[in-house]
Amino acid sequence: MLRLKRKGQSTAEYAIVIGLVIAAAVGMQIYVKRGLQAKIKGAVDYNDPSATAYMGSLDQYEPDYATTEKMVSTRKAIEKTDTLAAGGVKREIQGTEESSRTGTTKISATP
Length: 111
Fold this sequence. Notes:
The chain is an alpha+beta fold. It is 46% helix and 33% strand. It folds into 2 domains: 1-60; 61-111, no CATH class.
């Protein structure tokens, strides 16, 4: 009888250890992703003169490096809006919708 209790105890201990390992792996997932992305960005941004002679700059896109000038967005649509019970809103576009965007966006290698 005592032997059966010990076997159950060791099984429970293994289950707890496996659960802790899985929790640690899930918790570290974001840091592993960030590390891999940093390595990829470093490889892309590496300034190898022979590679830049053929392809120009190999800098990776950064959203902070984009500058937008005179961007105008227009939207033409007939929209029907109904207020529903409990604060809900129902919107329907009747006919066709047209939208356009004009302007320039410049992406530079440095901010």
